[in-house]
Write a structure and sequence with these properties.
- With 225 residues, the chain is α+β, with helices and mostly antiparallel strands.
- Helices cover 22% and strands 40% of the residues.
- It has one domain.
- Strand 7 and strand 8 form a beta hairpin.
- The protein is elongated.
Length: 225
Amino acid sequence: MKLTQCILIASLSVICCSYSKRAREEKAVQNDQFSTFIKNFDSLRLPLSIIRKDLYKYGGRKFFDSVRTDPRNPYYQKVEAKYYRFLQREIDRTNRHEYKYLLASGLGKLSIILYKQIDLDAESFSIKMSTLTANGVVIDTLTLAGMKANVSEKYVEIDKDWKIHTTFYQYLPDEPPLQALVANKEDEEFVITSDGHFKKTFTAKNKGYFDIGPGNKSLVPYKKN
């Protein structure tokens, strides 16, 4: 009986040691991959504003080439599938989307990344922000800006204190246009909590008529002449 117990204890010890070793190896691989992944972003500098004129610039590499801080940094390149786990907790792996590196920053013990998600089946894209732990575990993800042709547009402003203000316009094509865009407008504000989550602090919704502002820069309330 004692011999059997000794053998069982020894077997369990071997299994535990093996599991512990494998866990350490997996953690080391994760850390190495995240270190490589984060180097593909350029530096995020606040305040950051992505309004209508910038939204379409964010649709192409030319804009990022004009604001990047280190030309040697290979950002705005396609994110490889092996790094998808660093983008968001649940991600589409059906090849319907493509992802591009944009900007990154640190916030206390957190890593903050901005990346672009492109819908390959439709004329649309979005700029997303994710918070991660120091070793690359995704905590939370928020869509900051983007557009879907003939459906919606979204903009963002982030101040120096990391307060995030988004404005979303959902078109209402079945409504009489009155020579203006009819849309539901939604304003939201968020802060990033100490544990890395996006906490909504304000929201307001209204329906209105909007004109494209001077220089195609913004949507402004429609005023009948």
